[in-house]
Write a structure and sequence with these properties.
CATH superfamily of the largest domain: Protein of unknown function DUF2961
Order of helices and strands: HHEEEEEHEEEEEEEEEEEHEEEEEEH
Structural class: mainly beta
CATH topology of the largest domain: Jelly Rolls
Distance between the termini: 87 Å
Largest sheet: 11 strands, mixed
Number of domains: 2
InterPro entries: DUF2961 (IPR021345)
Pfam families: DUF2961
Organism: Bacteroides oleiciplenus YIT 12058
Shape: globular
CATH class of the largest domain: Mainly Beta
Protein name: DUF2961 domain-containing protein
CATH architecture of the largest domain: Sandwich
Helix content: 10-25%
């Protein structure tokens, strides 16, 4: 009888451990599991730049400088689930930093997506390079094919607008906008938002004191003067960021911590440990890396960390939730002690299509020039003179 009791207990333990695992697997909710579910009440639709004559001129006619054009206008309820775009001429001739994409939901007269088209799809400044993440990609050929797989719901229509703020014509604009037409959206579908911000950040009055090389460092507990990459009111969740930094010094740019103010907080409830840590990397990286959720598709190839770097992170399984408001920020250097040319595109969902903060102007977002060897020689000349211009000065006296 005692033996039967032990066996029964062991069997109960095994079953107790096994069945919850099986149940979890059967009930799991992910893309591959959901892909097998049959759907009802949806119809695939597409708006594209296809040649209406059936010929092969499958692009829009030239956009002149200053021209705005609506490329997609959709009625009723549905979900945009794929966008693809390519443009001619390529970025070395036509900057995608000055071609603006805007998206409007539910008949609103203000956009809930507004960004230069390059940075939105993961192409910083006026450059081109391959980029691959789960929701966004660019390339091949060398970053020219730009795609989005973000889910973009609406109940009362959607509109996508392109504005040419460059000084040249867009000779050819190719695109797909794929969407699902529905009678009614599933419950609790948020509205997709994306906002581009850009700042030339300011060093401290005492200078760029990073790593204590030129002066004492002080703590930052309030987040004052942090760079802001998202600020909105409503209920929703933050899902990702593309981060573009141009550093004018060989000093490491990434000691800055991310700080989050959720639902009206005056002190941040989420605080990070460094910029590269926020992007799931470590130890001041300078190598290209791509993961579905995070990576460095473009790194500087200059001295130290001088030059341009693009990092990204998508919060696919770990969104940052807010009930009333959110303000996401990051320091530019420890205690905001560095001058950096910073630009970001933040991506999030919220309950209603909300207006965005003011967009940076063309002049404000203009890429800063590269620092080169001649500039460094001028720095050396100024340093030599500060040291009395002795003929044998080496450089680290």
């Amino acid at each position: 009888m005692k033996r039967i009791t032990k066996v029964s207990l062991l069997l109960s333990l095994v079953l107790g451990l096994y069945f919850p695992i099986v149940f979890a697997q059967v009930s799991m909710n992910n893309e591959m599991f959901d892909l097998a579910k049959l759907k009802s009440g949806v119809k695939n639709k597409r708006i594209s730049s296809t040649d209406p004559t059936g010929g092969n001129r499958d692009h829009l006619e030239p956009f002149q400088p200053g021209e705005k054009r609506t490329i997609a206008e959709i009625k009723g309820a549905g979900v945009i689930n794929h966008i693809w775009i390519t443009i001619a001429p390529p970025p070395n001739e036509l900057s995608r930093n000055d071609i603006i994409i805007r998206m409007y939901w539910d008949g609103k007269d203000y956009p809930s997506v507004e960004s230069p088209i390059g940075p939105f799809f993961g192409q910083g400044w006026d450059e081109r390079y391959n980029y691959a993440s789960l929701p966004l990609s660019a390339g091949p050929e060398n970053g020219t094919g730009m795609s989005s797989y973000f889910t973009m719901p609406y109940t009362e229509g959607a509109r996508i607008e392109i504005e040419n703020q460059t000084d040249k014509a867009i000779n050819a604009f190719y695109f797909y906008v794929d969407y699902l037409e529905m009678d009614k959206l599933p419950k609790d579908m948020g509205r997709f938002h994306a906002w581009y911000n850009h700042n030339l950040t300011e060093a401290l009055p005492e200078g760029e004191t990073e790593w204590g090389l030129t002066g004492a460092q002080h703590p930052n507990t309030t987040g004052e003067r942090n760079y802001v990459f998202i600020e909105t009111k409503g209920k929703g969740h933050f899902v990702g960021i593309n981060y573009y930094v141009h550093c004018p010094t060989p000093m490491w740019y990434g000691e800055g911590d991310d700080m989050w103010f959720i639902d009206g907080e005056t002190n941040p409830s989420l605080i990070g440990t460094g910029t590269e840590d926020f992007f799931n990397t470590s130890w001041c990286p300078k190598e290209s890396f791509s993961h579905p959720y995070f990576g460095y598709p473009r790194v500087n190839n200059d001295v130290g960390w001088l030059g341009r770097t693009h990092a990204y992170r998508f919060f696919i399984t770990d969104p940052i939730f807010f009930e009333k408001s959110i303000k996401g920020t990051i320091e530019h250097g420890s205690n905001n002690n560095l001058t950096l040319d910073l630009a970001t595109v933040a991506y999030w969902y919220q309950d209603l299509a909300a207006p965005l903060p003011a967009a940076p102007t063309k002049a404000q977002r203009a890429p800063k020039p590269f620092i080169n060897h001649m500039d460094m020689h001028r720095w050396r000349d100024a340093w030599r003179k500060s040291k009395g211009n002795k003929a044998t000065l080496w450089g680290n006296e």
